[in-house]
Amino acid sequence: MLHLCYTQSMAKEDKVEGLTSKEASEKLLQFGHNEITDSARNGPLRILLRLVRNNFIIYLLFFGAIVSFYVGEQLTGITILGVLLIIIGVTFIQEFRAEQSIRALRQMIMQVSRVVRDGREQEVLSKKLVPGDLVILRLGEKVPADSMVIDESELEVDESVLTGESRAVKKKTGDPIYMGSFITNGKCQAQVLHTGMNTKFGSIANMISEAEKSLPLQDKVNRIAGYMVVVAVFISILTGFLMISRAEAVNSETISGALILIIALCVSAFPEGLPVVLTTTLAVGATRMAGKNAIVNRMSIIETLGETTVICADKTGTITRGEMTAKKIVTPGGAIDVGGAGFEVRGGFSSDGRTVEIAENLELKLLLETAILCNDAKIERTGEDEEYKVLGTPTEGALLILAAKANIFREDLEGSRLEEIPFSSERKMMSVLHKGINSTLVLAKGAPETILLKCKYMQKDGKTIPLTDEEKKHFLQLNKKLTRESFRTIALGFKEADSGKRDYQEEDLIFLGLIALEDPPREEIAGSLKICKEAGIAVKMITGDHRETALAIADEIGLSGEVLEGDDLDKLTDDELSKIIRQIAIFTRVRPEHKIRIVRVLKQLGEVVTMTGDGVNDAPALKEADIGVAMGRTGTDVSRSVADLTIKDDNFATIVEAIKEGRTIFTNIRKFVSYQLSCNFTELFVLLLGVILAPVFGWGIPILLALQILFMNLVTDDLPAIMLGLNKSSFDVMKEGPRRKAAIFNIQLLIITSLAAVLMTILVLISFYLSSNILLQNLETARTTAMVSLILLEIAGAFHFRSFRYPVLTRSPFVNVYLFWASLASLLATALILYTPLNAIFEAVPLGLWGWIVAMGAAVIFTAVFDVVKKIKLFSIR
Fold it and tell me: For 725-735, how does the pLDDT look when each residue is reduced to its tens digit (9 = 90+)?
């Protein structure tokens, strides 16, 4: 049992109408922001210590520097230490920037709270709540701070985040509610007692630190790196052993030289950059997605996004605009048209072309007043004369805007709400007990079939008359006609209640009429559906609306397929549903429990399911889906807390963009992994084969020196690999079916990587042979020619790995502008060690015309061969 420490004096310290802005500001200075401090936060020092602790390369280089100093190679030792510092610096910057990006993403969805300040209800950032604030909490919202309930209606709270108990807890006036828990039923007003680290949640967070979790992608990349390490160590030691065995005299200088070369070769061949490049790529990809209004809540889902085969999308607000507008009213006295659109108070009321005066139509006035009083939303002026901001659901907001067009506002209506029975997806209605000046009324609104079932009378021409079964059938037919025209409909009813009783029955109501709400499809939805079709992604529209409403919207956006209603879904077994579910494109009259069943059946069929949701009851389905998508604008805190992805603009097109980015990120990871492995294998084989072939061709060994290898590792291995991770989406990334749980490194990638490594190795050896044996240049010049050849080959390889399909000569070098500038930087760095005094450190020489011709010739041959391979479509890798 949880207990909140508070005293009656604390509860009474502040006025029940809330704080003033001045008082809130003073308390914010006193108590600080209402935030939980992350004890596991990766600050600069923590990142640096982790790098030094976990990076084996650092220890290798440090050992190499010590060996160099020991044998008197001070210049080599200093250079190795310089390389060591550069590696630490570059890796630190990448990790720090990635950490900053991830932290920024977490701040993009800021929780807001409704509070009463300065005597009026308003929204503030939850982090700015202070003790004494009066907060208003409704179904689905997260409790932002430890508080005491001062007024409630049917309040139930999920405290599992603190207690581990998933059962909802009933709360009454005077009970405590805790930061991090969720309102699962009813609503309340509560006074904030403790904020930030002074809350129960804060005290728990202070005792624990979040363990660092490895991503599935990270594990896959680490496995690849692990295999490469074994190969690198074996070949490096073999190369060193062969060097010693081929030496004319074995002495300490020979052994130390071989040892330094082994270390340099290990450092170069170890794919130490892969984990860092992966983190950077994921962070950059997530930032790109955020720029398109898709906020990643869990980095691990980026891989799964690209595998999506089915999108189950809510109709309202995702496929449609989510900006409800009342367009028609049907009362027992006749039909009325309503002008205007959106949340602007423009437009009047008319019937058969004649203006309807509200003062002369008592039934309409009563209907509008009922729509206001049986309503939990609020509207606020945005600053524009006719524009309003809705605090609450779009549907309830539209009813308030409708009444405002008749100049009827809640503030003008006298009385108070005594009791209420909240709306739920099972009941499909809401009712309140309202005490007016002269009477107490039961006011109800909800689905027409539900409200009409509870109505016994109707209001017509100022009189209350019986509502016959024929009349009910007539209104249901009218409702069906409206839903066929893609309207969402709401019915309203009322009755006088016994003023002496606070409990009431939702029976024998007086029917007031129907309100038809328009929510048009988003303009971009048709194009997004076309993209999904080309990408092999099935789209299923899920709605609680009538079949006719859903069909009208589906027809408008071009979504075709079978329709299944919720009641019919209940009659099917899972086996029966699995046989037809792929043909179903539209699910209507769906309840939250239907959503989770749809997801489970699709997953059993091997589909990768992305499911959208915004309500409290959608949380289980969002958890069950491979990717749960919450709505940023209309979604509840509960749905956002369990979702993997949050869509800030509630737009279906944003989900499609997120899937596109997910595919791109996975493809980029494949590209930089393949590129870096091809470079690493090339450097290993060039050194090994150089030693093996030396007696045959009379070469000096090694072909490349330790510092030359370390230089290439910095400028042409890691830098272009990082930039390959920044590739933008290719034009055809959404023109093929989704990959099905594909491995990062498969047989085709192994073949193409091996082909690149073998071809580069052969061309470097040929370059060394031409320089040494044909042009008869000295060993330093031949080594320099081989080094420049390998640098140009690796740069050419980076441009080839931009695409596994399209020849490099058919694509602009600026397709990836980052790679272009990184390659240019690599060339400038190469020129720096060739034509400045630095060449003495790296034992290189200024390369002449013939050297450049040989090196560039190798790069041209490599490009030609690979372009031919792509042209004949030897590989079908994306």
Answer: 888 888 788 88
Which of 133, 146, 314, 376 is labelled catalytic?
A: 314
Model confidence pLDDT, tens digit, residues 759-800: 999 999 999 999 999 998 999 999 999 999 999 999 999 999
**Segments forming the whole domain that contains residue 710:** 214-289+662-735+742-871
Task: Let me know: does 545 contact 483? Beta carbons within 8 Å.
Answer: yes
CATH of the domain at 376: 3.40.1110.10
Give the rounded distance of the alpha carbon of 716 from its chain centre.
Answer: 32
* β-sheet bridge partners, residue 294: 647
Q: How far apart are CA 520 and CA 556, in angstroms?
A: 9
> Count of domains in the chain?
4
Q: Among 274-288, 623-637, 646-660, whose mean pLDDT is lowest? A: 274-288
Reduce the DSSP state of residue 734 to 3 states and report it.
coil
Boundary (domain end) residue, out of 207, 228, 263 = 207
Q: Is residue 75 part of a domain?
A: no
Same domain, 387 and 512: yes
3-class DSSP state of 385: coil
Which has more pLDDT, 715 or 450?
450
How much of the chain is in helix, strand and coil states, percent to nearest 5?
A: 50, 20, 30
Asked if 558 and 615 sit in the same domain, the reply is yes
Which residues are CB-contacts of 114 (< 8 A; sequence separation ≥ 6)?
121, 122, 123, 135, 136, 137, 391
314 flagged as catalytic: yes
Buried b (16+ CB within 10 A) or exposed e, 36-73: beeeeebeeeebeeebeeebebbebbeebbebbeebeb
The verdict on residue 234 lying in a domain is yes
